[in-house]
């Protein structure tokens, strides 16, 4: 029996590893032929590591890489041009041995400072790029590093270029004292000017990103990316542990930890990074063609990076441990956007249901039941079917990433839009994770952050609304639920880009309205939209929650009733009640009408768009 146990243990070791170990024993190992993974402790061929994006082929550990390698993995071949190559630091404190140390590092690393800056093409788009190096005093930020980064940002602002900065640093450079500290303010104010110019900044946080770099330019991005398991934090974990006298949680200060707590948009592996950056860069181009159909989509590479979270969409999300590089989800448009209508508006004079629509004769309470049906499609399923690609972005940059709200950048027929929606779950476990589609304050703040980002880059915003209402709980009140909803109502009213809200299921109270301050609000035929649930209405006014059916009849909460009252602009028919397993026709109709909406507002100025939205609600 012991022999069998030992045999099984030996069988777990591959023949290639045995060969490696035998070579090590015989002293036949050429320099640089092997490396040991600090993650899984395996001995690896260096050639295999390089072929695998300088990551461990066994456990995926991302090894630190030098700036030239980083640029070769990120930029279009041969496109990099260095800026400020001769700029080097000095010794402002006359610190003993510092000048000699700098000279030694320049000779051993082949670089003159802890950051390399310049310009390159990424996906064909000219971009200012910076790469920090852990090999040079752990990427610490001294005066030269701060100056090079500031000059890069200032030149990018002048030449109207996006900035991508790979951060890797232990923080401020102690040998330069207070002069190092000032670089935090200098770089941050340069980024403020870049932001005011309406330009994209994407910091990529690699292992490690800590101290003064984390507390300045590393956390000021429009979109913040991070490599898997990268150490990211302000104070060191040992200092924190000693200060508070507590055991730190698993994964503390990792990239995944930061994403969960709302400070990182996406954790992206090295094999995804170039494509992810290319999609982000393309999505900020303000002039976009929505009339070119599939040709336009192919020209711009609009499929982008499609994501999911394992709930049933057809592709994978890097943030949940999988690598969804290819755009596997495709819309089902059913061809070009023709003129034949499948929708009806409240003012189109075609009667209650218009052409192609159902005339199901059911009361308001039955509509409520259909809106709540577990078989009804959820936001992710609409995104997968209606849009050509979707890249999810996470977090409110304040507290957390609310799983009841999903949002990100989507493409449709060559145009980029921002899509935000409430997300319910399927089954008890997933519904608990999604909080039954009821957002917390961080969900509303995430939505507002993404909407403001869309405004900055001229992307229309599409909300998909399906929520019983905002979450009611102690934590929600402590974190300012009322303020978060109020802030959305205020800020969304003035967005200078077109905003469309589509109520696909439940539109519950202020929790739904905070996603529906739009130029147009549409409802699916079996959706409902109301000040509160019929059960709550009956309990408050009649002290009898059992009178919910009666309450639904008097509340005017169905799509047809609200269209007739001028509360919404359009009702989207459901010849049969929407079903997650049979939604192709419905998705095609939605896609067609969304394209029409985008085309209507294409030549409208931001001021006119905001003014029209104001007048829409002023009339009510």
Your description of this structure?
It contains 24 helices and 19 strands. The strands form three sheets. Strands 11, 12, 13, 14, 15, 16, 17, 18 and 19 form a nine-stranded mixed sheet that branches. Strands 3, 4, 5, 6, 7, 8, 9 and 10 form an eight-stranded mixed sheet that branches. With 620 residues, it is α/β, with parallel strands linked by helices. Strand 1 and strand 2 form a beta hairpin. Helix 16 (441-456) packs parallel to helix 18 and helix 20 (534-542) packs across helix 21.
Short description:
With 620 residues, the chain is α/β, with parallel strands linked by helices. 39% of the residues lie in helices and 16% in strands.
Fill in the keyword field for this structure.
8-stranded mixed beta sheet; elongated; alpha/beta; 9-stranded mixed beta sheet; 620 residues
Helix-strand blueprint:
Layout: H1 2-11, H2 15-26, E1 34-36, E2 43-45, H3 46-51, H4 67-74, E3 81-83, H5 98-109, E4 115-122, E5 125-132, H6 143-159, E6 163-169, H7 177-196, E7 201-210, H8 211-214, E8 225-226, E9 232-233, H9 237-244, H10 255-260, E10 266-267, H11 270-283, H12 293-300, E11 344-345, H13 364-371, H14 379-386, E12 389-392, E13 405-412, E14 415-422, H15 427-433, H16 441-456, E15 461-467, H17 474-478, H18 481-492, E16 499-508, H19 509-513, E17 520-524, E18 528-530, H20 534-542, H21 548-555, H22 559-564, E19 570-572, H23 584-600, H24 606-618
Parallel strand pairs: 5-6, 6-7, 7-8, 7-9, 8-10, 14-15, 15-16, 16-17, 16-18, 17-19
Antiparallel strand pairs: 1-2, 3-4, 4-5, 11-19, 12-13, 13-14
